[in-house]
Amino acid sequence: MKTSKHKLLCGLGLYAALPKKQKPAGRRLTLFLVGLFLVGFAIFMGLKAINTLKKKQEEAATPAGPTKDQELLTEIRDLLKSQQGK
């Protein structure tokens, strides 16, 4: 049986102050699902931010031009092509 205290507490948003037996099961399920959604969304946004930061660090770490080895190999390739053409 719901008392006037129950209606007053629910109306004021003090739902957590009610004993567990007086809370309707549907309300508990709704609160659980909303909390689960909020926690999941917060984790998703945190992981998304971490991945964005990692991607920026990887882009900054990649060299812009060819390395010295690549330049040397390119010169050797060009010399071999010019010798074969003669």
Describe the structure.
The protein has 86 residues and is mainly α. It has one domain (24-85). It has 3 helices and no strands.
In summary, what is this structure?
With 86 residues, this protein is mainly α. Helices cover 73% and strands 0% of the residues.
Characteristic terms for this protein:
86 residues; 3 helices; mainly alpha
Total of domains:
1
Proportion of residues in extended strands:
under 5%
Structural class: mainly alpha
Amino-to-carboxy terminus distance = 103 Å
Low confidence ranges? none
Morphology call: rod-shaped
Helix content: over 70%
Beta-strand segment tally:
0
Radius of gyration: 33 Å
* Topology as a string of helices (H) and strands (E): HHH
Tally of contiguous helical segments: 3
Main pleated-sheet profile? none
Round the mean pLDDT to the nearest integer and report it: 81
How is this fold's topology laid out?
Blueprint: H1 4-11, H2 25-61, H3 68-85
